[in-house]
């Protein structure tokens, strides 16, 4: 199977798995943002009728997955493996959703890079003949993330201007080795190849500087992807990072230009989910973040544009900050990770 490896970090999918179903859900903050029309469901109350933020996030993830299964015209019994992850202790959201859906489950943790990680591993499983239908998903919730990594929202602590706003959102797709019945006028999206990222540590220790901590890993993954594939950045209609936010996006842009990429092409073809999900006047400071950020933007706005034929090729690079609830307090820096998957309209 070595022929599927290309260059140092990239794998090529022979079967090119299809995305046959997608679903997403967002919270109240997301309903007030520029991508509100791109969600299947938006919440009036981020508790979602549950008794805790954690239970609400679990219900959101399950709702997004059920929507993806419905769009794929399948039943949950048709899903061979569920791949999912989140930010709560021991990926509680994904594990409890898997319990309730009763689907074979592989839990993943790549922090906010988890959506692309699930897409990459799901595509590998299908390409290797180990599964026919895979659920790939991720979620986050502002209040659960604040409680775990910073201060519970009940404390009312002041957030610095560099801090990002964790998306209250979930996104899911069904990957399959076979296409489904395509409605007239809708394009089908396939995964063609992927670049698995390396952990890159820029020495950032401030947990309120996530974009700065993650940007170097995204740059490294993109440069290696372009070298492995022999492509230029303008091969893609859009190169999309997961949640670098306004600060991290500027850092990444500068680093790419410093690395020799054409500035005009970088500005024309690169964007970040964390700058798309919210507008600056929503008081989100550094922009959006969280596993649900890239998951929701990709399964909403981006997939809509691909299905409608408005864009044909994208490189999705969800980005993750690999800190824990105790590492920052022990003086550790914040390593970053970014995985990339290339998706093309057939």
Account of the protein in words:
The protein folds into 2 domains: 2-176, Peroxisomal Thiolase, Chain A, domain 1 (3-Layer(aba) Sandwich), CATH 3.40.47; 189-345, 3-Layer(aba) Sandwich (Peroxisomal Thiolase, Chain A, domain 1). Helix content is 34%, strand content 22%. The chain has 10 helices and 15 strands. Helix 2 (53-71) packs across helix 3 and helix 6 (210-229) packs across helix 7.
Look at the structure and name the CATH superfamily of the largest domain.
Answer: Stage V sporulation protein AD
Helix-residue proportion: 25-40%
> What class would the helix/strand composition place it in?
alpha/beta
Secondary-structure element order, N to C: EEEHEHEHEHEHEEEHEHHEHEHEE
Quickly count the helices. 10
Question: Would you identify the regions where 5 or more consecutive residues have pLDDT less than 50?
Answer: none
**CATH topology description of the largest domain:** Peroxisomal Thiolase, Chain A, domain 1
Nearest-angstrom radius of gyration?
A: 18 Å
CATH architecture of the largest domain: 3-Layer(aba) Sandwich
First and last CA, distance:
25 Å
Briefly say what this structure is:
Helix content is 34%, strand content 22%. The chain is α/β, with parallel strands linked by helices. It folds into two domains: 2-176, Stage V sporulation protein AD (Peroxisomal Thiolase, Chain A, domain 1, 3-Layer(aba) Sandwich); 189-345, Stage V sporulation protein AD (Peroxisomal Thiolase, Chain A, domain 1, 3-Layer(aba) Sandwich), CATH 3.40.47.40.
């Amino acid at each position: 199977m070595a022929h599927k490896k290309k260059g140092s970090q990239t794998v090529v999918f022979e079967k090119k798995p299809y995305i046959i179903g997608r679903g997403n859900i967002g919270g109240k903050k997301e309903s007030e943002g520029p991508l509100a029309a791109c969600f299947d469901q938006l919440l009036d109350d981020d508790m979602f009728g549950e008794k805790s933020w954690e239970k609400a996030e679990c219900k959101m993830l399950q709702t997004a997955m059920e929507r993806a299964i419905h769009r794929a015209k399948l039943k949950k019994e048709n899903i061979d493996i569920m791949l999912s992850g989140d930010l709560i202790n021991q990926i509680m959201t994904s594990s409890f959703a898997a319990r309730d859906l009763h689907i074979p489950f592989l839990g993943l943790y790549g922090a906010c890079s988890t959506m692309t990680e699930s897409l990459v591993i799901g595509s590998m499983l299908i390409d290797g003949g180990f599964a026919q239908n895979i659920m790939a998903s991720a979620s986050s919730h502002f209040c659960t993330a604040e409680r775990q990594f910073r201060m519970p929202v009940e404390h009312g602590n002041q957030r610095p201007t560099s801090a990002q706003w964790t998306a209250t959102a979930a996104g899911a797709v069904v990957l399959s080795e076979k296409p489904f019945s395509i409605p007239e006028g809708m394009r089908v999206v396939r995964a063609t190849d992927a670049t698995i990222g390396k952990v890159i540590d820029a020495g950032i220790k401030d947990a309120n500087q996530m974009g700065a901590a993650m940007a170097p890993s995204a740059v490294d993954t993109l440069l290696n992807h372009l070298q492995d594939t022999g492509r230029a950045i303008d091969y893609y209609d859009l190169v999309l990072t997961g949640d670098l936010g306004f600060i991290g996006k500027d850092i990444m842009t500068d680093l790419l230009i410093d690395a020799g990429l054409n500035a005009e092409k970088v500005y024309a073809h690169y964007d970040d989910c964390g700058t798309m999900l919210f507008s600056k006047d929503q008081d989100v400071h550094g922009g959006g973040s969280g596993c649900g950020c890239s998951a929701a933007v990709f399964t909403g706005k981006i997939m809509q544009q691909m299905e409608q034929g408005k864009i044909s090729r994208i490189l999705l690079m969800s980005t993750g900050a690999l800190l824990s609830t105790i590492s920052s307090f022990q003086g550790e820096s914040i390593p970053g990770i970014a995985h990339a998957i290339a998706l093309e309209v057939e």
